[in-house]
UniProtKB/TrEMBL annotation:
SMART domains: PGAM (SM00855). Signal peptide: none annotated. It comes from Caproicibacter fermentans. Pfam families: His_Phos_1. Keywords: Hydrolase. GO terms for molecular function: phosphatase activity. This is Putative phosphoserine phosphatase 2. GO terms for cellular component: cytoplasm. The gene is pspB.
């Protein structure tokens, strides 16, 4: 099965900051005007032709991107909870972008794996892979030949090994029932 991976467009966290959202509430960020234009542009990319379904993360920045692509292409859209971004705090209590950034820095310092004998609240790389693989495998088992997956940089890195995943740039991979996911990417 051919998978066209697309990272959402540029997000706007200002509405979340203005409302004082914490934890998962920070995931409610919509797209910026530039992010909307990025989504409209990628929707015109010929690489998307003959795709059978768009599968999206539930986070608004990804879902808004997927909805724009669906509107422009006429391709059916499905939402998958487990295509969400890496969780900086599985207790959903972080309060700011700065706190999320600090958690991400620790994740990077530890290369995505808890230090031996230590526990962290952020999601390990293996946990990301354990939740995304069954989603992808489901569409493979259903017989899809070409799908679009709109998700996040942390998810796309597991498939591509790319350190810098660009907004609304398509990345193409082949999935044959299993996949050797990338762990830490420098």
């Amino acid at each position: 099965m051919k998978i066209i991976l697309i990272r959402h467009g540029e997000p706007n966290y200002t509405p979340c900051d203005e409302r004082g959202f914490i934890g998962h509430g920070r995931a409610l960020a919509p797209l910026t005007e530039l992010g909307i234009m990025q989504a409209e542009k990628v929707a015109l990319n010929s690489i998307l032709s003959k795709s059978e379904i768009i599968v999206s993360s539930p986070y608004p920045r990804a879902l808004q991107t997927a909805a724009i692509i669906s509107r422009e292409t006429g391709i059916k859209l499905s939402v998958e909870m487990d295509l969400r971004e890496w969780e900086p705090d599985k207790t959903f209590q972080f309060k700011s972008s700065e706190e999320a950034d600090a958690l991400y820095q620790d994740f990077c310092y530890c290369k995505g794996i808890y230090p031996i004998g230590k526990k962290r609240n952020w999601e390990e790389i293996d946990e990301i892979i354990e939740r995304i693989d069954p989603v992808i495998h489901f569409y493979f088992k259903e017989g899809y030949k070409k799908i679009i997956v709109v998700t996040h940089g942390g998810v796309i890195r597991r498939f591509t090994g790319e350190a810098k995943v660009q907004y609304c740039s398509p990345y193409v991979i082949n999935y044959c029932g299993s996949f050797d996911y990338f762990k830490w990417v420098e």
